[in-house]
């Protein structure tokens, strides 16, 4: 599934970047081509109009005569030639310094006369553009320059644009090569990014799947308890409730387990949905801690524990009392559950300017090094967990850590086996 997603992201990335590259490169190429073409046409026009104003050596066709005072204008030197053609398509004049053969001039004239008024052609291995105009001569009459069209004659100006065609071709090749190289680089980068961006999603997905599997598995136990006991109850329909109290009691245990589990799952879901934490209020964290410790006094006494509490005097803070006490309760509940009989539990709360640090330490078998990184995972229970009894799910620390995160704090754990286990809950006060 994620392979398919990665491929999709990759294809999408490549399509978009190829499109953008194509548009950018085409724009550059077309703009350059437009500029070069416009430049060539301007040069062509310049040659054409300067030729129209030129006097012989061209022989003037018909009975037209050359006026000695005709203005002579020379165009910038550009590799070009001009053909004068009569109405029978005969070349009557050639103005060229280029060493083309008569057959080549003829071929050029034929192509130009058969084509549009301006166009391009390849002649003698070079690229040319041409322009067909009516043939005009210029002369001075009565002190004024007069331009006259010579009826039946046309002039065709040819301009050598091999260099600019070459420039355009090499530009196209460069753009293609750069484009291909960029696509290869973009492919590699996209592949890497697609892989990296999908990895956390895949991990979260796997975690979620594992979570659903674990939750279903955990729900099965109380359901089995209830179903089995219900069957016994139904099998003895005629008996009194009193006489069936054992089965009913068992069903109650199942219901309690299920209720505890669903409450935990719900609170995890609520926390992760990003629901607002509620209103901040001022409360004394020391009082909260003492209240939770005394609420579990019975369990502590049953195990003959020594409880050492060290609270800083000034612990009034602005925050979320319910959530903060839930974290401490989870840590203290674990300490009571996993401490050795007649062991010791120490609770120490200190406060710096902005940070409150609440440490809960207990003696006992501790947590193996291999288990330590996993104890915050949902449904994870280390080997020592049988000490906690069957009523535990391995959700306490996962929920506590999530709450701590929501409060902008964290929980750290360290443990030396058969010695001391310490959990430290640190959170900001404002
Ligand atoms: N103070 C502790 N001493 C030793 N082991 C601990 C301690 N706290 C947690 N653990 C280990 O970490 C595991 C995870 O703890 P967590 O509180 O998440 O689950 P739990 O206590 O087993 O179940 P739940 O809290 O859902 O009732 C426990 O099963 C236990 O193995
Ligand atoms: Mg717990």
**Major sheet attributes:** 5 strands, antiparallel
- Provide the number of structural domains: 3
Shape: rod-shaped
What share of residues are in beta strands? 15-25%
Q: How many individual β-strands?
A: 12
Explained architecture:
The structure is a single chain. The chain has helices spanning about 1-50, 100-115, 160-235, 245-270, 285-295, 295-300, 320-340, 395-405, and strands spanning about 80-85, 90-95, 120-125, 125-140, 145-160, 280-285, 305-310, 315-320, 345-350, 355-365, 410-415, 420-430. By secondary structure, the protein is α+β, with helices and mostly antiparallel strands. It folds into three domains: about 1-170; about 200-270, Helix Hairpins (Orthogonal Bundle), CATH 1.10.287.130; about 280-430, Histidine kinase-like ATPase, C-terminal domain (Heat Shock Protein 90, 2-Layer Sandwich). The strands form three sheets. The protein has a five-stranded antiparallel β-sheet, sandwiched between helices. A five-stranded mixed β-sheet has the order 7-9-10-12-11, covered by helices on one side. It has a two-stranded antiparallel sheet with strand order 6-8. The longest helix has about 70 residues, at about 160-235. It is rod-shaped and about 135 Å long. Residues about 65-75 have low confidence and may be disordered. Magnesium ion binds near residues 334 and 396.
């Amino acid at each position: 599934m994620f392979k398919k997603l990665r491929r999709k992201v990759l294809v999408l990335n490549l399509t978009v970047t190829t499109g953008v590259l194509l548009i950018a490169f085409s724009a550059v190429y077309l703009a350059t081509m437009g500029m070069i073409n416009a430049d060539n046409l301007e040069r062509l026009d310049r040659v054409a109009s300067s030729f129209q104003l030129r006097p012989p050596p061209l022989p003037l066709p018909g009975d037209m005569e050359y006026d000695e005072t005709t203005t002579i204008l020379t165009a910038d030197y550009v590799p070009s030639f001009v053909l004068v053609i009569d109405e029978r398509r005969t070349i009557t004049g050639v103005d060229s310094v280029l060493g083309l053969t008569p057959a080549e001039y003829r071929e050029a004239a034929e192509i130009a006369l058969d084509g549009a008024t301006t166009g391009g052609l390849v002649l003698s291995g070079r690229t040319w553009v041409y322009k067909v105009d009516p043939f005009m001569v210029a002369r001075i009459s009565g002190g004024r320059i007069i331009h006259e069209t010579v009826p039946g004659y046309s002039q065709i100006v040819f301009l050598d644009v091999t260099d600019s065609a070459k420039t355009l071709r090499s530009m196209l090749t460069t753009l293609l090569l750069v484009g291909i190289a960029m696509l290869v680089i973009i492919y590699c980068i996209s592949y890497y990014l697609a892989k990296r961006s999908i990895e956390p999603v895949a991990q979260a997905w796997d975690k979620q799947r594992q979570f659903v599997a674990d939750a279903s598995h955990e729900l099965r136990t109380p359901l089995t308890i209830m179903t089995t006991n219900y069957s016994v109850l139904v099998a003895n329909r005629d008996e009194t409730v009193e006489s069936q109290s054992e089965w009913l009691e068992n069903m109650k245990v199942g219901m309690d387990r299920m209720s505890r589990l669903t409450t935990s799952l719900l609170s995890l879901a609520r926390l992760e949905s990003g629901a607002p934490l509620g209103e901040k209020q001022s409360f004394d964290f020391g009082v909260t801690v003492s209240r939770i410790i005394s609420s579990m006094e019975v369990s502590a006494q049953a195990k003959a524990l020594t409880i050492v509490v060290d609270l800083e005097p000034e612990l009034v803070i602005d925050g979320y009392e319910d959530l903060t006490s839930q974290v401490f309760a989870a840590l203290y509940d674990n300490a009571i559950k996993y401490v050795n009989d007649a062991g010791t539990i120490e609770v120490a709360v200190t406060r710096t300017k902005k940070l409150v640090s609440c440490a809960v330490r207990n003696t006992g078998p501790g947590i193996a090094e291999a288990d330590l990184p996993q104890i915050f995972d949902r449904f994870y229970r280390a080997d020592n967990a049988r000490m906690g009894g069957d009523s535990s799910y391995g959700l306490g620390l996962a929920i506590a850590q999530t709450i701590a995160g929501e409060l902008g704090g964290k929980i750290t754990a360290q443990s030396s086996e058969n010695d001391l286990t310490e959990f430290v809950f640190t959170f900001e006060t404002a």
